[in-house]
Automatic annotation (TrEMBL):
SUPFAM superfamilies: S-adenosyl-L-methionine-dependent methyltransferases (SSF53335). Residues 124-311 form the Methyltransferase domain. It comes from the Eukaryota. Pfam families: Methyltransf_32 (PF13679). PANTHER family: CGI-41 METHYLTRANSFERASE, METHYLTRANSFERASE DOMAIN-CONTAINING PROTEIN. This is Methyltransferase-like protein 25 isoform X5.
C-alpha cells in the first residue's frame, strides 16, 4: 500500500499558497488529458496517454471498484505508480464532508418556513433556504447590517424568506426580467398572508428587485453602494425592446448615482452580500465586491456551475475573469480550460452511490458517444468543425433497457410472439406508459414479433465468425445485431445522425467502427 501523504491547509496565506502550488505541479503533466474530451476517446486514441500497466490493471477491475476510484480507493495489488497517483491526488482534494463545528454556527436558530413561503420549492430548496437564511440573519446581526443584497436571486425564494421571516431589508438582483416579475408577484401573495397575521402590515418588508447582468464587480459594487429608493427598477411583464431600453436607462441612472456616492466616499449603511447558487463568475464578483466596497461587511455565498467560470487565457475581454482570481494563482501558471472545468464538476460521491446497472448504463452512453464521434470523423468531417450536439441520449438508453426488462418479464425471451394487444396492455401496467417506434416492432397476424433477440451477454465480437465477402459481412452484421450493445450503438448512431440532419447512407459501416470500440466497452 502506498504511504499516506501529508495534509494541506488554508489556515494561513503561506499554507494556502503551498497547497495551490502543489495542485499546479500535480496537474501539469496531465494537461493533455485535462484538455481532452471523452467523446474523442477513440478518435484521438486517448488511452495511449495513460500508463499501459494502469490500463491493463483497471480493465480487469469490477464495476464496483471502478466506481470508487474518484473517491481515492486503491487495491494493494495495483501497480505501485497507480497507488502513488491516487494517494497523492487524495491528499490534494478539498474535504467533501461538511464541517458544522464552527463556533459561529453554535446555537444557530433555524426558522421552519411555512407553506406560504415555501410554495414552489422542492424539499432540497426548502432545506437550503431555511439554513442559509438563518446563517445570513446571524451574520447580519453580528456585523450590524440591516440590508441584504441577494445576488442571482432567481424567483426570490431566499430574498422573501429574509424579508418576511427575518424582517431584513433585501434587494434582489437577477439578470432575468421574468424572474423579477415572478418575484414581485410572489411577494405580493406572501405579503397578503403576513398582513392578515401581523398588525400594522405597512411595516412589512418586501424585497426590492433589480434586473441587471452583473458582468463585473464594478457593477455590483455600484449597486451595493447606493440605497435604491424606488421599490423596483422594473415590475412590468412586458418585454418589448422599448421597455428593455427604459429599464437599462433607469439602471444606468442608479449605477451612475452609486458610482458618484462611492467615488466621494459617501458610504451608506453596512450591508451583506448573499447568494444561493450564485452561478459561475457571479460568486467571484461577490468576493471582489466584498474586498473593494467598504459598505459590504460580509459575504455569504453558495456557489455553483464552477465550469462556467471565465478564464484569462480563453476570454478576450477587458473585464476581469473568474479564474484565476488571486495573484498567487496567476503566478502558479496553472490554466484549466473548458473540458477541465467540466471534469472538475463531476461528483465522486455520485459515482460511488451508483448501482452496478446504473453505472453500466453511464459507461455505455459514453462508449456510444465516443464511437459515434468516429462515425462523424470518418463520414461527416465537416460536421465535427461545428462542435455538434446530439442531445442527451441517456434517457433513451434507459427506456431501451426498460423495454428489454419488460419483454423478459412477459416471457418474450423464450417465445418470439405474444398477442400484440396483450403485450401493449401489459406494458402499460408494468411501466405506466412505454413508447416504441414502429420500426422496432413487427406485427404479423396480430402478433408481436420480437426483433431484438438477446444472446449471451458475454459474447464478444472476437468470438463471432470472421468473414470477408459482402454476403458474409451482412450475415455477420445480422449476428452481431443480436448483441445488446451493438444494437443500441446502431440505434444511438441513427438517432444522432438524424438529430444532426445527416441522412443514413449505405456507405456507413457501423459494424467496423463498433468492432474497434467494443474491446473498451464494459
Amino acid at each position: 500500500m502506498a504511504a499516506p501523504r501529508r495534509s494541506f491547509s488554508c489556515e494561513s496565506a503561506t499554507q494556502t499558497l503551498e497547497w495551490m502550488n502543489a495542485i499546479a505541479v500535480f496537474l501539469r503533466p496531465f494537461k493533455p488529458l485535462l484538455d481532452a474530451h471523452v467523446v474523442n476517446f477513440f478518435k484521438d486514441r486517448l488511452w495511449e496517454m495513460v500508463d499501459e500497466q494502469w490500463m491493463e490493471c483497471l480493465r480487469k477491475e469490477s464495476v464496483e471498484n471502478l466506481l470508487k476510484l474518484p473517491s481515492g480507493f486503491v487495491q494493494d495489488y495495483w501497480p505501485h505508480s497507480l497507488q502513488e497517483f491516487i494517494c497523492t491526488l487524495r491528499s490534494l482534494v478539498f474535504a467533501r464532508e461538511p464541517k458544522l463545528s464552527h463556533p459561529f454556527l453554535c446555537n444557530l436558530h433555524v426558522a421552519s418556513l411555512g407553506s406560504v413561503l415555501t410554495q414552489g420549492m422542492s424539499l432540497k430548496k426548502k432545506h437550503e433556504v431555511e439554513i442559509l437564511a438563518a446563517v445570513i440573519s446571524k451574520v447580519a446581526s453580528g456585523s450590524g447590517a440591516q440590508t441584504i443584497i441577494d445576488v442571482g436571486s432567481g424567483q426570490g425564494y431566499l430574498a422573501q424568506a429574509l424579508s418576511f421571516e427575518y424582517q431584513l431589508s433585501v434587494t434582489a438582483i437577477d439578470a432575468s426580467l421574468h424572474h423579477a416579475t415572478v418575484t414581485n408577484a410572489r411577494a405580493e401573495r406572501i405579503k397578503k398572508h403576513y398582513a392578515a397575521k401581523i398588525a400594522g402590515s405597512q411595516h412589512l418588508k418586501v424585497p426590492r428587485t433589480v434586473t441587471c447582468h452583473v458582468l463585473s464587480s464594478d457593477i455590483l459594487t455600484a449597486l451595493s453602494t447606493v440605497s435604491l429608493h424606488e421599490e423596483n427598477v422594473e415590475q412590468s411583464t412586458d418585454t418589448n425592446n422599448s421597455l428593455e431600453n427604459d429599464v437599462l436607462e433607469n439602471l444606468k441612472s442608479h449605477i451612475g448615482k452609486a458610482s458618484y456616492l462611492y467615488n466621494n466616499r459617501k458610504i451608506g449603511p453596512p450591508l451583506v452580500l448573499a447568494g444561493l447558487h450564485a452561478c459561475g463568475d457571479l460568486s467571484v464578483n461577490m468576493l471582489r465586491t466584498f474586498v473593494d466596497c467598504e459598505q459590504v461587511k460580509a459575504v455569504v455565498g453558495v456557489g455553483c456551475c464552477y465550469n462556467l467560470l471565465s478564464e484569462d487565457h480563453a476570454e478576450k475581454t477587458n473585464t476581469p475573469c473568474g479564474f484565476p482570481m488571486s495573484r498567487a494563482a496567476k503566478l502558479s501558471g496553472l490554466t484549466l480550460g473548458k473540458n477541465a472545468h467540466d471534469l472538475a464538476c463531476q461528483s465522486a460521491e455520485r459515482w460511488r452511490s451508483l448501482t452496478k446497472d446504473d453505472a453500466l448504463q453511464n459507461f455505455d452512453v459514453h462508449t456510444f458517444r465516443a464511437a459515434f464521434q468516429m462515425v462523424l470523423d470518418k463520414y461527416f468531417p465537416d460536421v465535427l468543425t461545428s462542435s455538434p450536439s446530439i442531445g442527451r441520449k441517456g434517457k433513451a438508453l434507459r427506456r431501451q433497457r426498460m423495454r428489454q426488462v419488460i419483454e423478459s418479464k412477459l416471457g418474450t425471451k423464450g417465445c418470439n410472439t405474444v398477442p400484440f394487444f396483450t403485450f401493449k396492455q401489459q406494458c402499460k401496467s408494468a411501466a405506466g406508459s412505454l413508447t416504441m417506434k414502429t420500426d422496432e416492432l413487427e406485427v404479423v397476424d396480430g402478433c408481436y414479433s420480437n426483433m431484438a433477440l438477446r444472446v449471451d451477454a458475454c459474447t464478444t465480437l472476437e468470438e463471432l465468425p470472421q468473414s470477408s465477402s459482402s454476403s458474409d459481412v451482412r450475415c455477420l452484421e445480422t449476428t452481431v445485431e443480436k448483441t445488446d450493445n451493438y444494437l443500441l450503438f446502431k440505434e444511438f448512431s441513427m438517432s444522432g445522425l438524424s438529430r444532426l440532419g445527416c441522412g443514413p447512407s449505405e456507405d456507413i459501416n457501423l459494424l467496423e467502427i463498433w468492432k474497434e470500440a467494443q474491446p473498451f466497452a464494459i
